[in-house]
Amino acid sequence: MTNNILEVKQLTKKYHNFTAVKGISFELERGKTLAILGPNGAGKSTTLKMIYATTPITTGQISINGINVAQDPRRSKWEIGVVMQEDLLDTTLTVLDNMIAHAILFDISFKIARKRGIELLHFVGLDNYWDKQVYSLSGGMRRRLVLARSLVNNPKLIILDEPTTGLDIQSRHVFWSKLNELKLQGVSILLTSHYVDEIETLADNVLIIDHGTIIANGSVKTLANDLGYENLEKAYLKLTKFDEEAKNIEQTKS
Ligand SMILES: Nc1ncnc2c1ncn2[C@@H]1O[C@H](COP(=O)(O)OP(=O)(O)OP(=O)(O)O)[C@@H](O)[C@H]1O
Questions:
Q1: Around Cβ 107, how many Cβ atoms within 10 Å?
Q2: N or C: which end of the chain has fewer CB within 10 A?
Q3: Whose CA is nearest to atom 16 of ligand 1?
Q4: pTM of the complete model
Q5: ipTM of this predicted structure
Q6: Which atom of ligand 1 is nearest to the CA of 46?
Q7: What is the tens place of the pLDDT at every residue in 112-145?
């Protein structure tokens, strides 16, 4: 067994004539956190969707815990927990029933789903809300519920697409502390984010992508320095040619 929980090789995604992801390769070591950073439209969500098998791969290969995603999407889904941008919670159900409904998709019996649901709601600090309707939860609570829901099948890898977008600062910190606890339990994490502070807080490694291509890949602590930049944010802005765009905007104005 390789030490990588996730291996992505020469992955490409075409939407008709448009290539959103252009032959990218990367891996995620067991127990580590990898963040994908990139401008709007860079191909981050498309990459995640191919990994969690809701969008077909055009070419290339993804393996999760040694399972080929294209060949065995159902088994690969059992290895992962997913926190998508849209929370897809059933607002007509209670908090605990949302947990149970999700667990049943993994063939978990009602009795075990209920027990596990209660444990996970405790983990994310929603014990007192188990019988509340989802619509009564705040945005931060909903995100924590989605995180709890993603853990019902005991995944080895969790995948999060912009998990804290729109949350207030306190809620972001609560969410981060839960992810750090999971990391300490040995869970591997793959996330996308637009927040450099989030990446610096959570991730071991960062992948910068732009126009469907990887433009940098390395340790969060050393990448900027290795490339000769002051910090990750400056490296990101330079690598994605933000300076040139800013100049163009200024020239258009004058
Ligand atoms: N279903 C689709 N059909 C056609 N084009 C799509 C589809 N989904 C995404 N795209 C295009 O693919 C490109 C990559 O989109 P994607 O959502 O992966 O970017 P992203 O990096 O996640 O952006 P954001 O940060 O805004 O979420 C974009 O140009 C987008 O318009």
A1: 9
A2: C
A3: 43
A4: 0.93
A5: 0.97
A6: 18
A7: 999 999 999 999 999 999 999 999 999 999 999 9
